[in-house]
Amino acid sequence: LTIAILLAAGVGARFSSESPKQLFEYKGKPLLAYSLETLCQMTQIEKVVLVVDPETEGKLSEMEILQLHTHKVHIVRGGRTRTDSMLIGIKFALSAEKQIKSRFLVHDSARPFVSKEHFIKILSQKETDQAYVTSSRIYDAYALQKSTGEIRNITEGELVVFQTPILLTREIAEKVSTELSLELRSGLAGLLIDLGFKPALIESDGTTGKITVKKDLNSW
Ligand code: CTP
Ligand code: MG
Q1: For the segment 132-187, what is each residue's pLDDT rounded down to a tens digit?
Q2: Which residue, 35, 67, 73, 82, is the most exposed by fewest CB within 10 angstroms?
């Protein structure tokens, strides 16, 4: 059983629109509706915990996809930071889904265009005690060694960025939810590494990019 936690409680300060980024209308629907639709339509996902801010919550009744899946989607109010919202979502999901074998899929609504294929790829991983993190390799970059000023060419994809979706087992989700005090060095993936869980990396198919500023929409 898989329960998705969809984060949509940010203000989108860098996106600079009137309303939160997730409500921005793009090709006829709000950005939030894209990932919500994908997750709702997937039979591999039983429940969606949708984490929202008050303004986004107020607009949900206008979203058709929610009316079609009222029983699948659970709405909770997020917190001040992404970490706060994620922990609220994970805790709610843990209490809503008690089965020992349940799995928890954390995703950012700011990554609206993730393909069904990528979700299926991460969900079809078989190790039942393993966390899986979407990652994207970086090629042709330069790393600057601050202390020496030395510049090193990174060509072979040995640098990765962590993205979402991220898949957690129940045991790992429980551990994450009790490690609130840990500083999140690099988001959830960084926390998993700090906790010693050695997440496996699932290479992105190129659809997992984040919309941070308006021009990010130009590449879709
Ligand atoms: N998020 C959240 N709760 C917060 C902050 C962020 O649920 N308090 C979510 C956002 O809605 C987004 C995801 O976390 O889907 C990734 O965050 P980011 O791209 O930084 O979005 P914002 O925080 O909204 O944007 P900004 O940092 O520019 O304000
Ligand atoms: Mg943010």
Answers
A1: 999 999 999 999 999 999 999 999 888 999 999 999 999 999 999 998 666 666 68
A2: 67
